[in-house]
Amino acid sequence: MSFFGKPLSALDWNRGACDLFALAMNRVTGLPMHALIETAEKDGSRALVHAFCLIDSETMVDAVGFAPVMVAEDAGGTFYPGENSFFSVIPVTGQDLLEMRNHECDYDWEIEHSGVGEFLNSEILPSLKGKIAPESWQHIQQH
């Protein structure tokens, strides 16, 4: 997976690159990452529906901006047609996201070359001030 060379809009980040965006935001802000996932009951395999960072227990932030934290009903379709599955929102790490991508992404390279840092700096970080704890804002200013 590579997005290098293509400037991405907020919707692009949310439609296929949300994991990269959430990881970059986590690294810059220290905000915890969560994901809406679908789990197949048969073998326990997991599919990423959407990754995001939490502002607080009720508010998430992704490339589009701030919204109520996703719930299972936000999932839409299924990755496992014809099988029993369930949706849940869980805390995730970069390793969890990589496993859901079948290790087909070099997140460090993507963060450096995809333009995600520029997008965060111009579109998201300015709107975080006042919405997050002062110590988190200090962490951001150090990056």
Low-pLDDT parts are none
Percent helix, as a range, is 25-40%
Class by helix and strand content? alpha+beta
Number of helices: 6
Q: Would you report the number of β strands?
A: 5
Brief digest:
Helix content is 36%, strand content 24%. It has 143 residues and is of the alpha+beta class. The chain has one domain.
Give the tags.
single chain, 5-stranded antiparallel sheet, 143 residues, alpha+beta, 6 helices
Describe the structure.
This protein is an alpha+beta fold. It has one domain (13-133). 36% of the residues lie in helices and 24% in strands. The protein has 6 helices and 5 strands, in the order ααβββββαααα. It has helices at residues 10-14, 18-29, 94-100, 107-113, 116-128, 134-141, and strands at residues 33-40, 46-56, 59-62, 65-68, 85-91. The protein has a 5-stranded antiparallel sheet. A hairpin with a 2-residue loop joins strand 3 (59-62) and strand 4. The radius of gyration is 15 Å and the shape is globular. It starts with 9 loop residues before the first helix and ends with a helix. The mean pLDDT is 82.
Secondary structure layout:
Elements: H1 10-14, H2 18-29, E1 33-40, E2 46-56, E3 59-62, E4 65-68, E5 85-91, H3 94-100, H4 107-113, H5 116-128, H6 134-141
